[in-house]
């Protein structure tokens, strides 16, 4: 039996992201879970090779009325305690930060990142994140830096774009997994925050995506 990756989703988009595609090509079994629909998370970590917590429209600040987010935080704690590779993307990164005791919430000035924005790697993150990497973003919440973690990157408006916890846990605020087709679905959605402070116009997004998506894909 192939080792499985537990993939935690928060919406109903097609499953065409780069992360799951890459893992499937490497021979892992993809175990999709949808806690927001009431789907339970695994009771056992047997044959689990790692986990990814994806982004979504929910917020960790809503955990009181969305208890599945607390279940996801407990899942992340279990995986980190077992030293399993654990990756959080946007909301998933906020869930990991919450599990490690840090706060997550909206930007103090209400700024959005919706489009393609350059990262600023730290000295500790330079070996992993190349200078000048421009990545897809879609959020207006961020996370504080948990104690015992290493900051890997910032952006002009969000000081915590990526952190590492130990050698096998990574949380990022951006979306390296989203394809151009996936981002176009976001642009066409009824929630797309065009006109919000910090968000790029569709014209800007299209030009930046065409220029920088290949490098993001390689990364």
What does this structure look like?
This protein is of the alpha/beta class and 219 residues long. The protein has five helices and twelve strands. It has helices at 18-25, 68-81, 91-99, 180-188, 202-218; strands at 4-8, 29-33, 48-53, 86-89, 104-106, 113-118, 120-121, 134-139, 141-143, 150-154, 162-165, 169-172. The protein has an eight-stranded mixed beta sheet, sandwiched between helices. Helix 1 links the parallel strand 1 (4-8) and strand 2 (29-33). Helix 2 crosses helix 3. It is globular and about 45 Å long. 36% of the residues are buried.
Care to give the gist of this entry?
With 219 residues, this protein is α/β, with parallel strands linked by helices. It is 26% helix and 24% strand.
Jot down its keywords.
single chain, 26% helix, globular, eight-stranded mixed sheet, 5 helices, alpha/beta
